Structures are given as structure tokens and as C-alpha cells.
Amino acid sequence: MNRKTLPAVLQAHFETNLPNYLDMLHQMVDINSFTAYAAGVNELGQLTAELFAKLGFEAEFVQSAIAHYGKHLVLTRNGRTNQTIGLVSHLDTVFPAEEEARNNFHWREDGDRIYGPGTVDIKGGTVLIYMMLEALQQHAPQQFEAVNWVILVDASEEAEAEDFGQLCIERLEGPDTLACLIFEGGSKVDDTYQVVVARKGMAIFQVKTEGRAAHAGSYHPQGVNAVVQMAHTILKLAALTDYERQITVNVGTMRGGVVTNRVPHEAESWLEMRTFRPDTFAETVANILALNGQPDVRSSVDGYASAVDINLYRQTPPWARNEATDRLFSVWQQTGQALGFTVLPEERGGLSDGNHFWQRVPALDGLGPSGVNAHCSERSEDGSKDQEYVMVSSFVPKATLNTMAVLNLLGAFDG
């Protein structure tokens, strides 16, 4: 195996077989796998297991901890050594079947673009895993046979269910695991690629305000308006957004009141906070909770005060820049340089499965194909709205980069 000639061999392999890979993707996209539609998620899991069985992988299905979700898929192929590499994707998408039908959102080819639910997030990533492993099996069989390959495919990533992260830790943690590679979509501009080395953490909060009801005409002064108090609190929360420090506080929902002729006695909002640095994350969580019990609205009659109750509902810590991820990134960057690519690090605002296990298993993300408009199903004639799509031209170079990087990680060319 020659470091200089192998990339051309791999590229030719991928180009020759690209129609087959796209046919796999087409089969996957045709299955509605909305997170809450367990039957579709499980159907896609079965199809994925059958495809990887051709490469010698054995399938295991693990029910999500949330009973009405589908089953996680674990595919394993034992090697001759203790060296282990994990590969992560997910089965679910964010699109209910009714939304796909309403927006005529399905497999659609348009030049270099293939539109459809999950094309880039993340069914295209699953196909890229297949491409890489098939090429290793055929063109680097010694390395392929030596490694313990563990493919973990999440049934409920879009719902941010946390049990899958623990599953990854259980199957991968240990001194012999070289990496866990995550195949979320990766950006590509010409010959410049970005791979993900850090992700924001997220904290979700419930905010409740309580006032005192009163007739809006006859007894308005006695009332304490919970909606007005919520407005005060929302402004304080929104003011915690700090773009220079990469902190965002987004109040996503608000409800309150019943009818217009009544001073509302209660209101509720939900918000999320995201940021990269663990210390900034903890600080901002504390700043949000510090607004607990700070009333702004009182009755003008007797001074009765509104109440503010803020609760931390759930949090996913940031995936911070770290030595283990940076070591993996350097392999991809050096591999790209040898191939004539520029590989840059990306710190991404969205979460992935990697947020749940990066501290226990060395991880690198954004290794899937490139595309745009993930989570979007609408399109408009003026082009202001467009649907999710993947770029066909990104599959071959990204598969070549990943395959060569894995071989470099394994030390296949040493000496």
C-alpha cells in the first residue's frame, strides 16, 4: 500500500461506485424516520443493518430509553487486535410524514443537489461511513481486518435523548479506542473543508410568573398582571445574550392569560441558553437562575407582588476544545494537506451526540458530506426558502479524506 498512489485508487473506487451509494441514500430517504414515528425509525434501522451486513457487521437493536421512540442500532465487526474505532450516525429526522407530504419534500435531484429529508442530516453521513469501510475492506484489508469497528446509530438524536451517549461510552470507552468519528454534515467550499472540534452546550429553562386575577375594567388596580411580569423577565433574560462571548439566550415560547377582560394571573415561558466554554456555561446558568423571585409588577392598591419562578429543566454541557479532539483534528488536517485540501476546525453552535461522550472517548465531528438547510422542508418560488439538500460532489472527496485519515490514525504508512 503506497501513501502516494492510494488516494487515486480510492477516488476511482468511490467514483465508480457512487451510483450504488446514492441508491442506498435514496432508499434511506424514502423511509420517513421522524423521531416520534418509531415504526419508520426501526424500518430504517433494519435497512441499515442489512446494508452493513454485506461488510460483515453484526446488528444489535437497543430500545431507546424513551419507550415511544425507536431502537438504537449497534453494528459491530470484531478485528484481530484490540484497536477500536467508533463511528456515529443517527436514524431519525425532524420531519413528520404529514409535513413531507404538505411541502412536497422528497427525493429530488437537481444538478449537484439532492433534496430530501435527512439527505445531509444525517442519512448521507451513514452512507459515507459505508463508503469508507467498503474501501478499507477492498484496498486496505490488513488494516480493516485488524480493527474492532463499532457503528452506533442513534434512534432519537433530534430529540436529544441522552441514553445513546451512555451507550456509546459503554461500548467504546477504554485505552484501546483510538477515536469516535461522528458523521454529521460537514461544510465544504471549493477545496476547503471544516470538521467540528467543539460544540455549544445547551440548558433549557421553564419560567413561570404568577400574579393576581381581577376584572380588567372594574378592579384593574387590584390585579397583578402575570403577562406583564413575564415581559419584564423575558427582557432581562434576553439581555444575557452576549455575542462577543458567544452566549445566546433564546426565549422560544410564551403563553399567558385566558381572556382580555381579566387581568391574567399566570404565564409561562420556555427558553434555551447556549455557549461554548464550560465556565461561561456555568456562569450563565447561574445568572438566569438569579432572576428567580425578582418581581417588577405590584398592585397599586396594596402592593401585592407578582412571583417569578425559574427552573433548570435540562442541560447538556458544552463540548469544549480539548487535547484529544485536537489530536484527531491534526490527523485530518495533515491528511488533507497531503491530498491538496485545506481542513479547518469548526466550533459549531448546534449539539450532536458527541456532546454526551467527548470527555470519555476521543471524538471528532462533521465528517459527513456537505449540504445546506438541515431541518428545512419548505421552499418558495422566489428562493427565499429552500429545502434540505446534500451536494453529490462532496461524497467522493470527503470519503477519500476520511479513509486516508483513518489509515494515518492507524499508522498504516509508518516506515
Descriptive account of the structure:
It is a single chain. The chain is an alpha+beta fold and 415 residues long. It has 2 domains: 6-199 and 319-409, Aminopeptidase, CATH 3.40.630; 201-316, Alpha-Beta Plaits. The chain has helices spanning 6-29, 38-53, 97-102, 119-139, 141-146, 163-172, 226-238, 278-289, 323-339, 395-409, and strands at residues 58-63, 71-77, 84-90, 108-110, 113-115, 148-154, 177-182, 188-189, 192-199, 201-210, 214-215, 248-256, 262-263, 266-275, 307-316, 342-348, 363-364, 371-372, 389-391. The strands form 5 sheets. The protein has a 6-stranded mixed beta sheet, with helices on both faces. A 4-stranded antiparallel beta sheet has the order 4-5-19-18, covered by helices on one side. The chain has a 4-stranded antiparallel beta sheet with strand order 12-14-10-15. The N and C termini lie close together (12 Å).
